[in-house]
Amino acid sequence: MKYSIEVISASSPEWIEAVLADFPSFLQDHADCERKASAMAMSLIAKYPDRELIIPDMIDTALEEMEHFQQVYQIMQQQGVKLPAKMEPDLYVKELMNEAKGGSEESRFLIRLLLGSVIECRGCERFKLVADHIEDPELKRFYKELWVSEAKHGNIYAKLALHYFDEDLVYTKLDELMHKEAKVLKGLKIRSALH
Questions:
Q1: Mean of the per-residue pLDDT values for the chain?
Q2: I want to staple 193 with a disulfide (CB 3.0 to 4.6 A). Which of 29, 61, 115, 128 is the partner?
Q3: What is the 3-state secondary structure (H, E, C) of the chain?
Q4: How many Cβ atoms are within 10 Å of 100's Cβ, its own excluded?
């Protein structure tokens, strides 16, 4: 049984070019994404307290994502980049989260877990691109560590889904969501942001 998944469409070269051309904006968005990833893990506990198996993993994930937020914020301070008063809406996450609306409580629970895996999977792919292309050795090391961490988080969400749901259902729905993710990503404006 595999937990790891791969994106089905690679990020474009234009995306990494945009990031490297405006790294301060990328840092601001990255910090915001880490904060929201921590909140997403905690929201699963709040919505599904009866699913006791998820609680330890979601606590660990939330804490780790908050630690990443702290690390990105420290880099921002070193580079004189401030947290913005307001962030642009993350249309990528918004579009994907629409998949979790409607349907039964069970269906929404499955989709929320799988979207966690899908989003972390894309983060993994993009952090690897940053690590591979950025010249600063400290930032290269940092983004390599994040790439490994995001892969682990993606696996945690998939593992939890496989605990609660049939394997065929999980992988069928995951495949559908990965195709939806590729379509959403293709429709977005390229900017110096994680998504």
A1: 93
A2: 29
A3: CCCCCCCCCCCCHHHHHHHHHCHHHHHHHHHHHHHHHHHHHHHHHHHCCCCCCHHHHHHHHHHHHHHHHHHHHHHHHHCCCCCCCCCCCCHHHHHHHHHHCCCCHHHHHHHHHHHHHHHHHHHHHHHHHHHHHCCCHHHHHHHHHHHHHHHHHHHHHHHHHHHHCCHHHHHHHHHHHHHHHHHHHHHCCCCCCCC
A4: 17
What is the reported pTM? 0.93
User: What confidence tens digit (pLDDT) does each residue in 87-144 have?
Assistant: 888 899 999 998 888 889 999 999 999 999 999 999 999 999 999 999 999 999 999 9
Query: Minimal CA–CA distance to 173: which of 161, 187, 164, 190?
Result: 161
What interhelical angle do 105-133 and 137-164 show, nearest 10?
Answer: 160
Q: Confirm if 116 and 40 have CB atoms less than 8 A apart.
A: yes
Cα 9 from Cα 59, distance rounded (Å):
30
CA distance 175 to 87: 30
What are the structural domains, with CATH classification, of the chain?
13-187 (1.20.1260.10)
